[in-house]
Design goal:
By secondary structure, the chain is an alpha+beta fold. The protein has helices at about 25-30, 45-60, 70-80, 150-160, 205-215, 225-230, 260-275, and strands at about 5, 10, 30-40, 40-45, 85-95, 110-115, 125-135, 165-170, 175, 180-185, 190, 220, 235-240, 245-250, 255. The longest helix is centred in the last third of the chain and has 18 residues, at about 260-275.
Length: about 280
Amino acid sequence: MENLGYYNGKFGPLEEMMVPMDDRVCWFGDGVYDAGPCRNYKIFAIDEHIDRFFNSAALLDIKMPVTKQELKDLLNDLVKKVDTGDLFVYYQVTRGTGIRNHAFTEGPGNLWVMLKPAVISDGIEPIKLITVEDTRFFHCNIKTLNLIPSVMATEKAKEAGCQEAVFYRPGGRVTECAHSNVHIIKDGKLYTAPTDNLILPGIARAHLIRMCKKLNIAVSETPYTLDDLFQAEEVIVTSSSNLCLHACEIDGKPVGGKQPEMMELLRKSLLDEFLEETSE
């Protein structure tokens, strides 16, 4: 099939799948999710994503309906049912099913999976960004389904002809993007926001940090500001869908481009890592 949906043991083409109206996702967005790329039917960094998925659920006291190994086996089985092995693999768990009530529904959660064709960007072409005030709540470290601020910011970026929106908090602290992490190169070092409750601990972010250390590029996990962002030698955007992108413009102003050799080394190294781990 071209794409695939899964819900509590049933699966089929996405457009044919049905879910109960009283799944708590409908009333409260009560759930968490994770996602990552697949190439040649091999899901990249699957264990890291599943670990984060289970941690997000545990932080919200959602009871998982499967073990980590059961989920891993299920995902590896489901990707083989799709026509292409180059996929975006998305999964979420909601708190359960029941008549609308703010108090928790008893029992295990509902497991959803969505697979659709997708190819990882090679990161060669630069992207354009806008800045948007971060009005999200203080659980950004949990990958919840409550994504309205990110949806609105992404639409603003689209309307501005840009590919991403960079969030900042009062006082100018940069947190992350609408659906990515954002980092800067300053004085030849990588600066990335710390993994507190204002940002998601991205899997691609972790790979970037590890790659920098492997390449002897110093890493500082400390807060930085909008001024730092605009003055950075390079601005890097990472996500599981786009492993290592660089920005050339923010809010219509040129940025980056001052460490092209370092930027190309990081881009190529991270892409090579992905290609190697998902080779046939």
